[in-house]
Amino acid sequence: MSARTVLEQAAPAPTGLRRELKVTDAAAFSVGLIGPVGAMALLGVGAAGLLGQGATWAFVFAILGVALVGYGFVKLSQHISHTGSVYALVGRTLGPRAGFVAGCALFTAYATIGTGSTIEIALFFDKVLARINVIGDGSTEWIWTGLVALALVVALSLSEIRVITRILLICELVGAALVVVLSVVILVRVGVGDAPHGRHLNADFIHLPAGTGFGTVAAAAVFGFLAFAGFEGAAALGEETLNPKREIPRALKITMLVVGAFFLLTIVGQAVGYGTDPAGVKAFAGAEDPYGDLAGQYIGTAMGVLLDLVASVSLFAITLGTVNGAARVGYALIRDAGVSGPLVKLSKRGAPIGTISLTCTFVLCFAVGQRLAGTGVLEATFYWLTIGSIALLVAYAMSTVGAFRFLFLGGAPKAPRWQAVIPVLALAFVLYTIYKNSVGVHGPYRVFPFVVLGVLVVATAVVALVPGLAERVRGRIADPGVADEPGAAPEPALQDAE
Description:
Layout: H1 3-10, H2 23-34, H3 36-39, H4 43-51, H5 56-77, H6 86-94, H7 96-131, H8 142-157, H9 161-191, H10 214-227, H11 244-274, H12 278-285, H13 290-298, H14 301-336, H15 353-372, H16 377-409, H17 421-438, H18 448-465, H19 469-477, H20 480-483
Helix pairs in contact: 2-9, 2-11, 2-14, 4-5, 4-10, 4-12, 5-10, 5-11, 5-16, 5-17, 6-7, 6-16, 7-8, 7-14, 7-15, 7-16, 7-18, 8-14, 8-15, 9-11, 9-13, 9-14, 10-17, 11-12, 13-14, 14-15, 16-17, 16-18
């Protein structure tokens, strides 16, 4: 037994999260939560179903919306650092009750998006197994692949957070490199007239179908917005990042810029690769495996297998990121509420083992329940991603309102007054997107807004009815020993708006 092992065993259990991360780690965590390679494995297809050859506009619109919402996160993270992310940002700006509700919305978003990505891992990994003749094309037992992936997530989540962020970064870099290669090959072959079926490069991919209105573009932008889900993840590392008030805002900016560029290149490659004629648009809108389809046409079958594999790995990174994001938000909520016991237990490596277990239990129950209900893998994926996107948008809306109040209404402005229009536009974008996800939808999707509403009602009731909970939360999120750099003067919280 080494001296280091003896010391680790003798050391007392950690009483707080470890502050050890750099800007690259924080950015890697956000990128891992997004999982850009896995996100673009299906979400471009959804946009094509609404906008046809003009699917690119869904992502242009979404990038604009995310930039507007990201403004509030960047500005607030310059003043507030806390492992609760949106929970602390809203709690310090709109009051502890609103913060607690926002934190519950964010936890719900991460847990349900983690469920959707776990199921989607099975969708693409099983395609890999089918392509190499390990299983049949008609296999419906996706749950086993998902359960194996979840078990690996649990094991890795108990590692040091630095290990997790590096795994997320490596997974996404490898996958992104291959997708970029595919996109460039498509554009080059189409550009020089060497594409399958005589496809050639033109500007049709930026043309919207006749009669397409703003509402349709906004509805399609839901897929682009969902692709960005988790960009704010770095804010959940506020207590684990060195100099968080500088590095977290930088990490958020890097994430939005790099991932936005990747999404644009990929969606253009997919739209052009399938072709902008009616047959190509139909094939794109109905695709279940755009990476495999396009790689097979433009490069070769082996590349298709490899891209499905890296899509699975990217989706694994999303699950790993969302589980750890949810665990840290849940840890902050439970800890700050004054609860003690197993749920706020930390491992010797500083991982919130109690809330990791809780989050993975939720994901396990959701996924198994979906399989027992006989839901297909594709439908189950979109069901949980949709619930997660609505919950996430609620959290974004609350943080945007908080940013506006904190920056422009709390005494002396903390940003130039002309910038007040940015959070206003961001809020309008988010609320309209929630509206398009809630009104006029059909089938099970009609129920999902009420699921999120139920979470918000329960969270509101808990923080309102449990004696002293709001005051305990107020004290914890305003405590510089918890939320800010050691020795730093805390930014004064605004009075509870309620």
